[in-house]
Amino acid sequence: MKKLSKYEFKGIRECLGFTMVQWAEVLGVSLTTVQKTESNGASGYEVTEPLDRRVKAKLEAMNQDIEKLLEVIHSRPMKGESN
Predict the structure, then answer these.
(1) Mean pLDDT for all residues in the chain
(2) What CA–CA distance (Å, rounded) separates 21 from 42?
(3) CB atoms within 10 A of CB 42
(4) What pTM did the predictor assign?
(5) What is the dihedral of CA 35, 21, 82, 62, to 10 degrees?
(6) 3-state secondary structure 19-79
(7) Is residue 64 over pLDDT 60?
(8) How far apart are CA 59 and CA 80, in angstroms?
(9) What are the domain boundaries of the chain?
(10) N or C, fewer C-beta in 10 Å, the chain?
(11) CB–CB of 6/40 below 8 Å?
(12) Rounded CA gap, 32 and 65, in Å?
């Protein structure tokens, strides 16, 4: 499976109904990491390999089907984003 994009990272959080603060807590990362990863600005982060692995491991632990989540994410446009 390919690495998650910023769009997918944000979409997963939104599909699961987490705030940025909650998502940071679930992933064990800082709020700043979540904010900058979701940001499209020049100061934004890309989804790193370790963060990608962490998200996928957490989804598996939560019995979430990542493929189904990604289908939902890519079937609906998100404000200010393109697929």
Answers:
(1) 91
(2) 22
(3) 5
(4) 0.87
(5) 130
(6) CHHHHHHHHCCCHHHHHHHHCCCCCCCCCCHHHHHHHHHHHHHCCCCHHHHHHHHHHCCCC
(7) yes
(8) 25
(9) 6-71
(10) N
(11) yes
(12) 26
Would you mind telling me the total number of residues written for the chain in this entry?
83
CA 81 – CA 47 distance, rounded (Å): 16
6-71: CATH topology is 434 Repressor (Amino-terminal Domain) (1.10.260)
d(CA 83, CA 56): 20
Six-digit token string for 75: 């079937």
Residues 31, 79: Cα–Cα separation, whole Å = 21
